[in-house]
Structures are given as structure tokens and as C-alpha cells.
Amino acid sequence: MSDSYEIAAKIVPSERQLKWQQLEFYAFCHFGMTTFIGQEWGDGKTPPEVFNPTDFDAEQWAKAIKSAGMRGLILTCKHHDGFCLWPSAYTEYSVKNSPFRGGKGDVVKEVSDACRKYGLKFGVYLSPWDRHEPTYGQGEPYNTYYKNQLRELLTNYGEIFCVWLDGACGEGKNGRVQKYDWQGYYAVMRELQPDAVISISGPDVRWIGNEAGVCRKAEWSVVPSWLAINEYVAEKSQKSDDKKFAKKHNSMVLDLGSRKAIKGETDLIWYPAEVDVSIRPGWFYHEKEDRKVKSLDKLFQIYLNSVGGNASLLLNIPPDKTGKIHQIDTLTLDSFGRMLDREFPTDLLQGAHASATSEIDNEHGAGNVLEADESFWQSAQDEETPELILDFGRETAFDSLILQENIRTGQQIEAFDIAIQRGNRWKRIGKYTIIGHKRICRFKKTYRTRKIRIRIRSHRGKATLLRVFAYKRNELV
């Protein structure tokens, strides 16, 4: 193992990254001034009076999002037009000068309160680019303005699980140039919400590289540190002159963490991936897209590829002009939640037996992969291709297997196979790359067997598994 792989094998997530990864599936809600003008990017010139949701209901949002199996919600508190969904003390361009709640409303408070009521984590999006604020482009005056607004959001709305920052700036070559004080922004976030992850233009969570819901075949969480440089993120994540850029994935860098990709790298970081995709073609609500909501099959494939491919899924659900999530979207979300319950009903490995070709010690035995705690299996240090055998106790039908690596000690598994026992022989039914936090192995057919074998074909120094689950889709609706 070269120096790069020795370094990679020892990189571990922070506690905040672990808690974020365990959420797996959560919502984005793009809502603001552009909801009312039919655009994706506002110019900051629309009068505050235009913002007027007539039937705003944050609890309806929370219930719809929870019905889909999501565990959190991130709100666009200020998008690029600069309009604030809370009564900020630092600008007049906010809900306090709109008809909403007679100028006494606070969308951020109502949404954060609804999240707490329904058991959802709450996160905030605050666009660094501000097309309304006069100090934008003046350097320190704008950075002070931005940090002041961060302080408002991070002190007045309870616990925040995520601060989501994109790298947007579509000013163009003749536009205003603002040098963002990224480190100063991060300092405010760490001071006020130390448990919150800072995503995309930040050090904790990495953008997947497209908005099409596509992951890499091997999505490594340990990658070169230069991927977190803000200028690189901004260049790759925002293309104001190419509206189709963000939807493309064929030009996405396909290998970020393999042996070849990190060869010679000495500065590696834990920088896990997030898939952000909208349930509709656009990010904000547009009536003309009511018949273009993604199908259940499409959403399920995105879920399998993201949550099931060592990434988290941030699904955008844009509320409409009334201030509610449209009925078509709510029905889709509810149906999707029911679909997940059907696809993964009951773990078939409850009561099963696990054995392995090696165990590093008695505390890290094979049986740990069947326990609902933080204990895990680890193979002997010198075994190159360790194997784990799962015995149902009787012939059992299954069509999905879910594996979780013990990422508290890093991400080391590079490739593995799954096989089933047929008589005295083993039949391979799947060949895969990494595992990471979660790998969902979804088979095209149902298999019947008493025993399953997981063979780790390649790993970095050690092989660990935290949990293994087996499922058979419930055909009953």
C-alpha cells in the first residue's frame, strides 16, 4: 500500500458528518419572491408587495415531506434576488414589507417550528450572491452584511442541521465582483451552530456534480482536499450562461477517490457526497410543470443510486404561490413513502446467523452485523479477501441486500461480490465497488437460498461491516 492509500484508510468523518449521513434523505424547499414571478433567478428589483402567499401552511409542508420518508428540510431563506423570508434587521427587502401576515410574518420561524413539531431536522440556505443588496461587490461591507444575516438565522430558529451554500454568481464579466469571506462565514457557523454541516461551498458535504440525480459507480467519501476549494466548487456548480449545464452528468468527473485518482495525493479529507435534484424540472414552482413531476419509478431509481450509493439525497419540493405544496407533489410524496415501505418491509436477517473467514478479535465478530447497535465486524488485518456468510436458517426468498461499512473507522472496502448457496456450490449474483455508509444491492429477480456469501475482493488495510439487511418486496399494495 502506497503512502496515499495509508493516508486514505485513516481518514474518518467528524461527528457532525456522521449525524448528517444518517439522515440520508431530506427535502429542499425553494420558496421566495421568484415563486411569484415565474422565474428561477430573480433580479432583486421585484417590489416586496409581490410576495403574498394566500394560504401559507408550513405544517402541510412538514407532513408531506415526512410522508415520503424524509428526515429534514432545508429552506431557501434568501435566494439570489436578496429577498429575505424572515424580518431581517439589516434590509428592508424582506417579508416585513410584504402583505404576508400583514407585514408581521416570518416564514423561517413557521417552517422551523413545523419541522420540530413533526420530527424533522431544519436547515437553512442563504445565497452568498445578492442581486438586491447595494453593498454587494464592495468587499468587507457586504461580508459584514452577510455575516449579520447568518447570525440572525443561526440564533433565532433553534437547532440547525445544515447551512447550505452554493457558489452562484451570475453577474457576468461586467458585473459586480464580491470576494466572499468564506473563512469568516464558516467561523460564524461554527460558533453559533457547531453541530451543523456546511454544505457544497463548505468543508463538510460535497456536491455530487450534477442535478440529474446521478451518482458515480464508486462514490468515495475520502477525496483530495482541493475539491473543497470554493472557487472550484463555484466554477463547477453554477453556469449562468448554460441553463442545461447542471442537468448534465456525462462530463462529470467519474473518479474522485480510487487508488488511481488519489495516487500521489497527501492531503486527503472526508468529504461525502450529496445528490440534489428537484421533483420537477425547475427548482421553484411553475404551474406549467404540474404535469412534469417525476414518476415514482424515477424517484426510486434516484433513491437507489444516491442513498444506496454512499450519498445523501436532497430532493427539492417547491411550494406554490398559495404557500402550500401542490397536491400533485403531496400525492407523489405520500406514494413514494408507501413505496419505500413495500420495497424494504421487514429485515429477513432477524434471527439469522453470521460467520466469517476471520475476525480481528472476539469483540469484532461476524454476528455484530446483525445487531442494531454500533458494534461491527472486522476481518483479520492480514486477510486479503475476507468472506462473511449469512445463514437464514432455512431457504428464504429475497431481492435486496443492504450493506453498511463502519465509517466511524473510515472507508476501506473497494470491491465486493455477493453469492448465494446452490447445493454445495456458490452462485455469484452481484459484483460491486464501494460500500461506505450504505450500499443498496437491488436484484433484478428474486432469489431463494439459505445462505448468502459476501466476499470482500479488495480493501485498504482492513475490512469492516456495521450492518447487513435482507429484504423481499411486499407485492401487496
Task: Explain the overall architecture.
- It is a single chain.
- This protein is an alpha/beta fold and 477 residues long.
- It has 2 domains: 3-343, TIM Barrel (Alpha-Beta Barrel), CATH 3.20.20; 353-471, Galactose-binding domain-like (Jelly Rolls, Sandwich).
- 22% of the residues lie in helices and 24% in strands.
- It has 10 helices and 18 strands.
- It has helices at 3-10, 15-23, 58-67, 107-117, 140-155, 182-192, 230-237, 259-262, 296-306, 327-343, and strands at 25-29, 72-78, 121-126, 162-165, 197-200, 206-207, 222-224, 268-270, 273-278, 311-316, 353-356, 377-378, 387-404, 413-422, 425-432, 439-459, 464-465, 467-471.
- Strands 5-4-3-2-1-10-9-6 form an 8-stranded parallel sheet, with helices on both faces. Strands 11, 13, 14, 15, 16 and 18 form a 6-stranded antiparallel sheet that branches. A two-stranded antiparallel ribbon has the order 7-8.
- Helix 5 links the parallel strand 3 and strand 4.
- The longest helix is centred in the C-terminal third of the chain and has 17 residues, at 327-343.
- It is globular and about 75 Å long.
- It starts with a helix and ends in a 6-residue tail after the last strand.
- Mean pLDDT is 93; it is low at 239-243.
